[in-house]
Amino acid sequence: MNVRKRLFSGIAIAASLALTAGLSACSSGSDDEDAPLEDSYTYATDTSFVPFEFKKDGKYVGFDIDLITAVADEAGFELKQEVTNFDGIIPGLQTGSFDLAVAGISITDERKQTIDFSDPYYKSGLILGVPTDNDDIKSIDDLDGKTVATRLGSTSAAYIEDNIKGADAKTYEQLDQAYLAVESGSADAVLYDQPNVAYYIRTEGEDKLKMVGDLLEAQDYGIAISKDNPNLVKAVNEALATIKDDGTYADMYKKWFGEEPPADD
After folding, report:
1. Has domain 125-218 been given CATH number 3.40.50.720?
2. Domain residues of the chain, as ranges?
3. Confidence (pTM)
4. Do residues 172 and 165 lie in contact, with contact meaning Cβ atoms separated by under 8 Å?
5. Alpha helices in the chain (DSSP H)
6. CB crowding 134-155: b at 16 or more within 10 Å, else e
7. For 40-123+221-257, which CATH class?
8. Where does residue 210 rank: exposed (0-12), middle (13-18), buried (19+ CB within 10 A)?
9. pLDDT in tens, the chain (265 residues)
10. Can 40-123+221-257 and 125-218 be said to share one CATH topology?
11. C-beta separation of 148 from 248 below 8 A
């Protein structure tokens, strides 16, 4: 019995030491921003947020897709794509299902508690769209007594109710219905995310709608990264800075938004 006990005790101690060493090795790597990168990382993206990510001809395209691809190429790692609903992205980063994510994700203090972010790559917010021949509406100050179209359940719908006195929010399940309401005259203006409004005007609503007023509730988008990967954060930020400096970012921006990126980007 004593021999068996000593044998079992020896095995248990050896196993415990091995586990401790393994955990120590993992934790030491997670704190090192100069640690080597993995050969490939899995990134998550949303099912549809035009023009950032959406399905076309059987594959996902968009500004975010081009951006993360360029960042990975510059940083020197391969990418594996996972597509999911937006509300599953941050939990997936927390559990380690994804390493990175691009989906028009706003950088917030609350999200920083559970995930990390790259430096900002896009400034978004809400913007007004009005008919091209309308010179009366120049900002939200001119919407008293006006009907403003937007998407049902969106932040812009809440913004109209909470911040634009005298305006009537007319909501639609599909965003294209809101744009068509303005074009047909059943609504005076549309309020929605600036990149989506800009993309619609460039692709469908050219010579029909124009953007007016200031960007409202501006927020920065960032590449989301799972916690405890400082080496990945560093590599992504360095790659992001490089593609901005060498003109790659500006080319992608013009491709999807039809204009030069703002100077502060």
Report:
1. no
2. 40-123+221-257, 125-218
3. 0.69
4. no
5. 2-30, 63-75, 89-95, 109-112, 155-163, 175-184, 194-203, 230-245, 248-257
6. beebeebebbeebbbbbbeebe
7. alpha beta
8. middle
9. 433 333 333 434 444 434 333 333 333 335 688 899 999 999 999 887 889 999 999 999 999 999 999 999 999 999 999 999 888 899 999 999 999 999 988 888 888 999 999 999 998 889 999 999 999 999 999 999 999 999 887 778 888 999 999 999 999 987 889 999 999 999 999 999 888 898 899 888 888 999 999 999 888 999 999 999 999 999 999 999 999 999 999 999 999 988 899 876 4
10. yes
11. no
Please list the residues that pair with 168 across neighbouring strands.
147
Which amino acid belongs to residue 101? A
Six-digit token string for 78: 């391969």
Letter for the amino acid at 169?
A
